Structure formats: structure tokens, C-alpha cells
Amino acid sequence: MQDSVSQAASAADAVNQAASTAAGAVAQSGIAPPSADLSLFGLFLQADVVVKLVMIVLLLASVWVWAIIIEKTLTLRRVNREANSFEDEFWSGGSLDVLYEREGTDPANPMAAVFGAAMSEWKRTARIAGSEIAKTSVRERVERAMNVTIMREMDRLERFMIFLASVGSTAPFVGLFGTVWGIMHSFSAIAAMHNTDLSVVAPGIAEALFATALGLVAAIPSVLAYNKISTDLTRFAGRLEAFGSEFSAILSRQTEEHK
Questions:
Q1: Residue 77 and residue 84: Cα distance in Å, rounded?
Q2: CA distance 28 to 189
Q3: How far apart are CA 237 and CA 231, in angstroms?
Q4: Contact present, 143 and 248 (Cβ < 8 Å)
Q5: I want to staple 100 with a disulfide (CB 3.0 to 4.6 A). Which of 48, 75, 119, 140 is the partner?
């Protein structure tokens, strides 16, 4: 009887030791136990250090992407609204000199800046009294001044667009890197445990795939927004160029009349 009790106690000790060893292997491997927290925040906390770093980078990139999208959308709406207002005033038939004093000397929008640059160059050329060369080249000077201004204004409007393009093209690969690293880490831990039960494998795989999901969350809005905003910027640049061509023709006619 005592031998049976002793054997039972020894068997119980062996089971407890095996359970402790398995738990230690799970803890060292980084794979969540069957009762692991499978929420998004839980997957982040249980992920490997490298995968966590990838997730943080992708989250920051996603936040910055949405900040750029909102800022560009509001800016394009504002400059188009201000351009409409300026064009209405420009074509109303009022004095260009008065409009220049009010809008051109301290422009508050890109179209006013183009108008101010053209008027400044035209007035500067007109002050060269008696110079036939200045009169014949006034259109070239005005167009050059407007082109430089358009390029400067468009560069300002296109700021951070390269970031949208970069995130859209690289974020999926960054997320894939986190996924591959996480799966490698998970399979190494599984091999050490000698246990391929789904309840053991699934949490580690979910942590790894979460990185790819974050990469797509950052990349998809970036690509869509880049295409839309680029189209709007191209359209606005064409609007500035059309206004510049019309205004250059007006100034050229006025110069011809004063010859």
C-alpha cells in the first residue's frame, strides 16, 4: 500500500515537473498560451521586439499619412476658393494698379502671387524709359517671372507628397518583414516545444500577420490619397498657367499700346 502511494506521488511529481517545463518553454519562446489575449493590443504586447518596432513604425507612418491627407485636402480647397475670389475680382474690370496694391504686394494665395510677380516685373520694365529692347522683351520677362512664381508655389503645395508615395510603396514590405520575422520566431519556439497544437501555433501566427495588416492600413490610404491629391495639384497648376498666359497677353497688349 505504501509502495502504491509512493509511486502515485512520484507520478504526480513527474506530471507537475513536465507541466512546469512546458510552461517555461512557452514563456521563453514568446508564443502565447491558449488563454492568450488575442485583441489587437494584446497581440502587440505579446509580439517579438522586432515585430513591435515594425508595428510602431507603421502606426506612426499611418498617423502622419492621415495628417498630410487632411492638411492637403483643406489647403487645396482653400487655394481654389481664394483663386475663384481673386479671378472674379480680376475680371470685374477694375484697375489693375489698385488690385496690385491690395493683393499683389503681399499675396495671400498662389494666384495673387503670380499676378503680383507679373505686375512687379512689368512695372520694373516700364521704368526703363526709352528702351525699345525693354518694350519688345516685356512679355518674355513677365512670363519668366510668372513661371518662377508658379514653380515656387507648386513646390510649396506639393510638400510631403513624396512621403505619401514612399509609404504607399514601402509600407506593405515593411509589414511583410515584420510578419516573416514573427513567423520565424514562432516556428523556432514551436520546434523547441515539440508541440504543433493549433491553440499554441495560432497566437504567434496572429501576432506576425498583424504587422502585415498594419502595413496595408498605412499603404492603401497613402496610394489613394497620392493619386487624388496629385491630380488636384496638376489641375491647379494648369489653372495658374492658364491665368498667367492670359495675363501675359494683357500686359503685352498694354505695352504695345504705349509704344
A1: 11
A2: 8
A3: 10
A4: yes
A5: 119
R_g of the chain, CA atoms, integer Å: 34
pLDDT at 24 over 50: no
Grid cell in block for residue 100: 496690385
Q: How far apart are CA 104 and CA 86, in angstroms?
A: 11
Distance CA 186, CA 66 (A): 33
Q: How many helices (H) and strands (E) does the chain have?
A: 9, 0
CA dihedral 16, 17, 20, 26 (to 10 degrees): -120
Verdict on whether the full-model pTM lies above 0.90: no
Q: What is the mean pLDDT of the chain?
A: 78
Give the residue among 43, 65, 64 at the shortest CA–CA distance from 55: 43
% of the chain at pLDDT higher than 90: 38
Half-sphere exposure of 18 (CA within 13 A, CB side): 7
Phi-psi region of 32 (alpha: psi -120 to 50; beta: other; left: phi over 0): beta
What is the predicted pLDDT for the residue at 12? 41
- 3-class SS letters over the chain: CHHHHHHHHHHHHHHHHHHHHHHHHHHHHCCCCCCCCCCHHHHHHHCCHHHHHHHHHHHHHHHHHHHHHHHHHHHHHHHHHHHHHHHHHHCCCCCHHHHHHHHHCCCCCHHHHHHHHHHHHHHHHHCCCCCHHHHHCHHHHHHHHHHHHHHHHHHHHCCCHHHHHHHHHHHHHHHHHHHHHHHHHHHHHHHHHCCCCHHHHHHHHHHHHHHHHHHHHHHHHHHHHHHHHHHHHHHHHHHHHHHHHHHHHHHHHHHHHCC
